[in-house]
Design brief:
The protein is built from 10 helices and 8 strands. The chain is α/β, with parallel strands linked by helices. It has a single domain, classed as TIM Barrel (Alpha-Beta Barrel). It binds flavin-adenine dinucleotide.
C-alpha cells in the first residue's frame, strides 16, 4: 500500500492571544509529524498578511507550510506578488482556491475559477509549488450539476494541480463514488479526504448548510439529542469520525486532511484511536 499523507489545517489567528494559542496547538500537533500544516486565506485578501505571518512562523518551526490562496476579487498582479513573497520565504506548497466573495461585494477581479489560478501559478512559477485544489464529493453548492462539477474539477487537474483535498463529509460512500467518477475520467491525482472533528453541533449544522456538506439524518438527530452536553457530543463524534477515517484508510484513501479549527485535542485523539501514532 502507498504511504498515506496526513496534513492539518488552521485559520490565521486574529489576536496575539489567538496566535499564542495556535503556537501551542501546533507544538502538540507537530509531534504527530504531519506532511504539512495549511493555513486558510480570506477571499479578497482579507487575511492576506496574517496568512503570510502564520506560514512563515510554521516554516520557522521546521514543518512544511501550505498557504491557501483564493483568487476571486484579485488581480493578476496581486496574486503574482503573493506568489513571489511565498517563494522568497522558501514555501513550496500552496492550496489554490477560487474562494467566495462576501455577498454584496462587487468586483470579481481577474480570475473567475480556481482552474485559472492553477494555470496562472504554473505560468508564473513553473514547478516550484506543489499545488493542492479543493474537491467536493457531495458536489459544490453552486455547481450546475454533479457531472459538470466533476468536469470542472478535472479542469484544475489538467491545469497542473498535484493533489486535492475534499470538503468534509460524513458519508464515506460519497467519497468513494466521487473517486470512481474521477478515475473514470482519467483523473489520477491523490484526492485526500478532509476530516472535520465534531465538537459543536450548532456551529457544524450552520457551516454544513452553507458549504453543502450533508449531515446524515441519523447523525443530526443523535447529535441534537445531546442538546448542549458538549462532552457527549465530542465523545460520540469521536466514535463516528474514528469509524469514518478507518473506513476511508482501509479503502485506500491516500491520507487525511484534518480541519483542526486551531484545536489540538480532537485531532490528536482521533490520530491515536486510528493507531497513526
Ligand atoms: P472552483 O473549483 O473554481 O469551483 C467553484 C464553482 O464553479 C463550482 O461549482 C464549479 O463546478 C464551478 N466551476 C469551476 N470551474 C469552472 C469553469 N471553468 N467554468 C464554469 N464553472 C466552473 N475558501 C476561502 O475563502 N479560503 C480558504 O482558505 C479556503 N480553503 C478551503 C480548503 C478546502 C480544502 C476546501 C474544500 C474549500 C476551501 N475554501 C476556502 C472554500 C472554497 O473557496 C469555496 O468552496 C469556493 O466556493 C469554491 O472554491 P474552489 O476553489 O473549489 O472553486
Amino acid at each position: 500500500m502507498a504511504e498515506h499523507t496526513f496534513s492539518m489545517e488552521f485559520f490565521p489567528p486574529k489576536s496575539p492571544e489567538g496566535a499564542a494559542k495556535l503556537r501551542e496547538t501546533r507544538r502538540q500537533l507537530a509531534q504527530l509529524k504531519p506532511k504539512f500544516f495549511s493555513v486558510t486565506f480570506g477571499a479578497g485578501g482579507s487575511t492576506r498578511d496574517r496568512t503570510l505571518e502564520t506560514v512563515v512562523e510554521i516554516q520557522g518551526e521546521g514543518v512544511a507550510a501550505a498557504p491557501h490562496l483564493s483568487c476571486i476579487g484579485s488581480t493578476q498582479e496581486n496574486i503574482r506578488q503573493i506568489l513571489h513573497t511565498y517563494k522568497s520565504h522558501g514555501i513550496r506548497h500552496i492550496v489554490a482556491l477560487r474562494g467566495d466573495l462576501p455577498s454584496g461585494e462587487g468586483d470579481p477581479g481577474e480570475f473567475r475559477y480556481a482552474n485559472e489560478l492553477v494555470e496562472f501559478i504554473r505560468k508564473e512559477t513553473g514547478d516550484w509549488f506543489q499545488i493542492e485544489v479543493a474537491a467536493y464529493p457531495e458536489m459544490h453548492p453552486q455547481a450546475r450539476n454533479y457531472e459538470q462539477d466533476v468536469l470542472n474539477f478535472k479542469r484544475k487537474v489538467d491545469a497542473g494541480a498535484n493533489a486535492a483535498i475534499t470538503q468534509y463529509f460524513f458519508n464515506a460512500d460519497a467519497y468513494f463514488h466521487f473517486r470512481d467518477e474521477c478515475q473514470a475520467r482519467a483523473i489520477n491525482i491523490p484526492i485526500v479526504p478532509g476530516i472535520m472533528p465534531i465538537s459543536n453541533y450548532g456551529q457544524l449544522a450552520r457551516f454544513s448548510a452553507m458549504c453543502g456538506a450533508e449531515i446524515p439524518r441519523w447523525l443530526a438527530k443523535k447529535l441534537e439529542s445531546y442538546y448542549d452536553d458538549n462532552a457527549s457530543i465530542k465523545a460520540f463524534g469521536l466514535d463516528v469520525m474514528t469509524q469514518l477515517c478507518d473506513r476511508l484508510l482501509t479503502n485506500e484513501a491516500p491520507g487525511l486532511h484534518f480541519y483542526t479549527l486551531n484545536q489540538a485535542g480532537l485531532t490528536s485523539t482521533l490520530w491515536q484511536r486510528l493507531g497513526l501514532a
